[in-house]
């Protein structure tokens, strides 16, 4: 049995903002260990280490996971749940303006990667 794919940090913050109010900057909660540990457990998610990308710069890893997500959807179908893992990783690594540009290129048919193999 596989473990469920956790939501990204961005997804967790969106969910939390709709249910919790933000703390005031002068609140003493900023200095409480319990609050800090609780927020770390609620919000922090990081992509697991990938030995293919030992570099500090994450451009190649961003591109690879973007391609992996779209390849997974192309080969397995848009409703295949494990593809979400690739999406979560590239959304955590990639700046939004990169993925928006890549989405435009895919729509125009000019994206430099193939998704059907």
Automatic annotation (TrEMBL):
GO terms for cellular component: mitochondrion; respiratory chain complex IV. Keywords: Disulfide bond, Mitochondrion. It comes from the Eukaryota. Gene3D superfamilies: Cytochrome c oxidase, subunit VIb. The keyword Disulfide bond applies. InterPro entries: COX6B-like, CX6/COA6-like_sf, Cyt_c_oxidase_su6B. Coiled coil: none annotated. It is found in: Mitochondrion. Its main location: mitochondrion. The keyword Disulfide bond applies. PANTHER family: CYTOCHROME C OXIDASE SUBUNIT 6B (PTHR11387). This is Uncharacterized protein. It comes from Panagrolaimus superbus. The lineage of its organism: Eukaryota, Metazoa, Ecdysozoa, Nematoda, Chromadorea.
């Amino acid at each position: 049995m596989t473990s469920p794919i956790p939501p990204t940090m961005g997804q967790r913050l969106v969910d939390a903002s709709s249910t919790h109010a933000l703390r005031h900057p002068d609140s003493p909660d900023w200095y409480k260990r319990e609050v800090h540990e609780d927020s770390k457990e609620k919000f922090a998610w990081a992509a697991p280490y990938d030995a293919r990308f030992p570099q500090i710069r994450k451009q190649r890893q961003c591109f690879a996971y973007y391609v992996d997500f779209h390849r997974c959807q192309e080969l397995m179908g848009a409703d295949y749940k494990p593809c979400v893992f690739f999406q979560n990783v590239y959304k955590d690594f990639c700046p939004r303006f990169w993925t928006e540009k890549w989405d435009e290129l895919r729509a125009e048919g000019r994206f430099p990667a193939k998704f059907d193999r």
